[in-house]
Amino acid sequence: MEDIHIVPIGVIYTPHEHIAGMPVQPAGAEGIAGKIVMDEAYADGLMDLDGFSHIILLYLFHKVEGYILQPVPFMDTTPHGVFATRSPKRPNRLGISIVPLTAVESNIVHFTGADMLNASPLIDIKPYFPKYDSPTGAVRAGWIDAVKGVDIQKIRSDHRFE
Amino acid sequence: MEDIHIVPIGVIYTPHEHIAGMPVQPAGAEGIAGKIVMDEAYADGLMDLDGFSHIILLYLFHKVEGYILQPVPFMDTTPHGVFATRSPKRPNRLGISIVPLTAVESNIVHFTGADMLNASPLIDIKPYFPKYDSPTGAVRAGWIDAVKGVDIQKIRSDHRFE
User: Fold this and answer.
1) 3-class DSSP assignment, residue A49
2) Is the pLDDT of residue A63 over 70?
3) What is the pLDDT of residues A77-108, one digit of tens each?
4) CATH fold of A10-157
5) Which residues, 6+ apart, have CB-to-CB distance to B104 below 8 Å?
6) pLDDT tens digits, residue range B72-93?
7) pLDDT mean over B129-142
8) Distance of CA B46 to CAs B59, B65, B143, Å?
9) Interface of A with B in 77-96 (CB under 8 A)
10) Closest to B44 (Cα-Cα) out of A120, A149, A67
11) What is the predicted pLDDT for the residue at B73?
């Protein structure tokens, strides 16, 4: 299979300058503001985005190199398969964050829950459809259900994925 | 900004051979089975994935070319910004589907809710964390909240994004 070429469509600005010490999920970054500056060429694609309370951001883990197939994630002390974690050291270093949208002004998108590094290249924005993106019923979450006493609000990254 | 190189890590097999006539979300593909064959090189990364009832699939819309900044989405009759839709004709043609996981066997992952084309290149699998990936509270979904009388179970794609 051929390589796939992806083009950054903007830049995500956040207060996080270093991988260590960051929140590990938007749920751990409550109230932390981020700002997307989208390339002007794509700004027309933001029409009506402001009707959504939440958006899905797809971005590059631009400071990460290489991958670990069975990392010890920040929220646990034993290894799991990388595809069962959200570790940034993964075969394709793309991150997904579902975040509250605060405002759209021309080619600028303001949001909170910023859990990505400053200057992360933006790959895509998708609207969050609560009806279709929130599975209900018997939703199990394996190892993360089993972890006790971890407070996502307090947990921060360390140097393991630098 | 430089182009980003992404490598397919496997292939997603589904019953959908053509863009027209497909379900438009996993919620419209209930009971439709899909099978991922992951490259052997990454199979160790699947450890513990079977503990999760749902997974996030990231894949390439490999039959789509070009993009439309203000498309008329399948679920509506008026145009919206592409970033406020899940249209496959987007600047980076990557799709996200949150689907029920049914089984993991070595490098094979079985799932249902298959709403992507057959032979879609797999880019990433991430575990679905219900606690962190389901925003609660005042969740608004703009134009899609305003659309009346559309049944996601029945709606199918047409030729507009070929």
Assistant:
1) helix
2) yes
3) 899 999 999 999 999 999 999 999 999 999 99
4) Elongation Factor Tu (Ef-tu); domain 3 (2.40.30)
5) B46, B49, B50, B110
6) 988 888 999 999 999 999 999 9
7) 84
8) 17, 31, 37
9) 79-86, 90-92, 94, 96
10) A67
11) 86
What are the CB-based long-range contacts (under 8 Å, 24+) for A75-79? A75/A24, A75/A144, A75/A147, A75/A150, A75/A152, A75/A155, A76/A143, A76/A144, A76/A147, A76/A150, A78/A143, A79/B47
> Selecting from 2.130.10.130, 2.40.30.70, 3.40.50.1820, 3.30.70.380, what CATH number does the domain B10-130 have?
2.40.30.70
**Hey, of A2, A3, A4, which one would you mutate to test binding to chain B, going by the most B CBs within 10 A of its CB?**
A4
The token duo for A75 is 């929220």
Contacts of B125 (CB under 8 A, 6+ apart): A83, B36, B38, B46, B49, B55, B56, B57, B58, B109
Q: B100 touching A, CB under 8 A? A: yes
pLDDT digits (tens, 9 = 90+) for A27-51: 888 889 999 999 999 999 999 999 9
What is the model's pLDDT at position B1? 59
Q: What is the pTM of this model?
A: 0.93
CB contact under 8 A, A7 and B125: no
Mean pLDDT score, B82-107: 96
Contact residues, chain A, for B84 at CB < 8 Å? 45-49, 51-52, 127
In our burial notation (b when 16+ CB lie closer than 10 A, e otherwise), range B100-133 reads bbeebeebebebebbbbbeebbbbbbbbbbbebb
| Chain B CA closest to residue A57 | B83
- What ipTM describes this predicted complex? 0.92
